[in-house]
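Worked Example 4.2. Consider the chain below.
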Amino acid sequence: MAKKESSSKSVTFDAIVRQIREKQFAPVYLLHGEEPFFIDRLCKMFEESILEPDERDFNQVVLYGKDTSADMVLANARQFPFGSPYRVVILKEAKELKNIELLDAYVQNPSPQTIFIVCHKYGKLRSPKAYNAHGVVFVSEGVKDWNLNAWIQNLAEQTFNYRLNPQTAAVLGEHIGNDLSRIYTEFQKLQVVLPANSEITPEIVEKYIGISKEYNIFELQEALGSRNLGKAYNIMLNFTLHPKENPNIKTISMLYTFYHKMLRYHLAPDKSNDALRVIFGTGVPMMISRNIGYANNHSLPQLTKIISILREYDLKCKGVDASNDDAELLKEMIYKITHV
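Applying the procedure from the previous section yields the following structure tokens:
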């Protein structure tokens, strides 16, 4: 196990994973940012990978910011290892540590026999200058909405060794949203029932994750985009029977994005492949082609009117000038959209 020299700039999640696998550790790591998922993943890897199990009792300590002090953290970081080449000190919930700036002096001159890891979730450290100059810094940011489906697909394939098509990834992304920890947990659950190299089908998603393969927002979009009124009404009626899983606000938001992409397509002077990827938020040719087909089923005036309807019912679902309940509002809205 070897230590590497400190880095002076932020590094990626994958770069730190490589360091852990190659056991090339820096003396100080700062893991901070708004997205807790990546920080938790790296922290767990550090806990399980630096020292052997029989070395951890005497040489690995985990402290929590709300239950400790800067002096206690420093005292642990400066101790010598016992029967091991390194001592590992992990500070969790660092955002809760009072006087955290007192750690800066240690960061500027860390012990060569200690690997010190600071986990600062739900925000960046206010003054990370010392870590930027003398440690390895990782800034944990959430996955952007336009890239979420690709991230889910990559997670399934690279981390869990499953096959997942873009449409099923999109259903998962719509249903769960940007809760990366929950997405990861759902794949962990599938490992109990699904062998490696299996394909995660819509049937599996419906059975084990609880997302209907027939009555979801993407099926509603497909029905509306292709002008399949019967299918659209069936899905809409199912939504009214399951309002908790399909709240109107969420449905309207997704439909607004759906139709707004069509509007952008009609108005875009550039319809090159690169431009289409940006407009439709995907690089998958099949999905781009499908969205172009939906757009061509609607004229520019129709799309303008539909977006106006969605804005109207967004306000009504929030209680503005609304006399009907949520189910009736959804029925009204879908009827108006399909009769533009």
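The chain has a mean pLDDT of 91. Residues 27 and 112 are 7 Å apart (CA to CA). Compare this with Example 4.1 before moving on.
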